[in-house]
Design brief:
This protein has 203 residues and is of the alpha+beta class. The chain has a domain of 138 residues: Jelly Rolls. The protein contains six helices and eight strands, in the order E-H-H-H-E-E-E-E-E-E-E-H-H-H. The strands form two sheets. Strands 1-2-8-3-6 form a five-stranded antiparallel β-sheet, with helices on one face. Strands 5-4-7 form a three-stranded antiparallel β-sheet, with no helix packed on it. It is globular and about 45 Å long. Bound molecules: 2-oxoglutaric acid (AKG) and fe (ii) ion. 2-oxoglutaric acid (AKG) binds next to strand 7.
Length: 203
């Protein structure tokens, strides 16, 4: 469970999914996700890596997370015109306005760091179970408030530039016995850039 308002006191997070779940390993190398991440990040790197894996379960009563940019994991040191990260959140339950569907501020990747959204500028990624929402490391977003009676569950799988430090240390969280079976040829990346490895896990 979260230990502060940002991680969410009514929100359960489970990481190290590459080690824990074969189904998540398949999702990590999902062709649509990898191809999208590679095309988006390719101007800034020759290789992308797995950044963070997390099941995020917002329980009933969970408050909305503060609106933020995930790229602030690296502080404000990266030049603003470098896009460091691409994110997916896969819906394991329906995502609705009531149960805490991810909030997002379209266009805010171009805003100054200081500009705050007006309530009417915030939309929610409402989507049926099985869908995936893509958002960049620069766009303002957050987990929503869950005012419903049921939990909202999503799998957050995020990718970043190969030369950046990962938010979740994949070298420690995924043992070699599992990492060795990751198949780079299964990824869109391998086809776009033959011979280049897609995940930090494989280096
Ligand atoms: O749970 C969500 O919808 C988003 C969570 C999020 O943005 C985060 O934890 O950084
Ligand atoms: Fe976030």
């Amino acid at each position: 469970m979260g230990r502060d308002d940002f991680t969410g006191r009514a929100t359960k997070r489970t990481g190290a999914l590459a080690a824990r779940s074969a189904a998540c390993r398949d999702l990590i190398v999902n062709e649509l996700a990898l191809t999208t991440a590679n095309r988006f990040l390719q101007p800034y790197t020759r290789k992308i890596i797995l950044h963070l894996t997390q099941v995020i379960q917002i329980n009933p009563g969970g408050a909305a997370q503060a609106i933020h940019r995930d790229r602030l994991a690296w502080g404000k040191y990266l030049p603003k015109d470098i896009e460091p990260q691409l994110n997916t959140i896969w819906a394991l339950t329906d995502f609705s306005a009531e149960n805490g569907a991810t909030q997002c501020v379209p266009g805010s990747h171009k805003w100054s760091w200081a500009r705050q959204p007006k309530p009417e500028e915030i939309v929610q990624a409402e989507m049926p179970k099985g869908s995936v929402f893509f958002y960049t490391g620069s766009v303002l977003h957050s987990g929503g408030a869950n005012t419903s009676e049921n939990m909202r569950m999503g799998i957050n799988l995020t990718y970043c530039l190969g030369w950046l430090r990962q938010e979740e240390n994949q070298y420690l969280s995924c043992p070699p016995s599992i990492a060795k079976d990751f198949d780079p040829s299964a990824s869109g990346f391998a086809r776009l850039y033959p011979g280049r490895v897609c995940l930090g896990l494989l280096q």
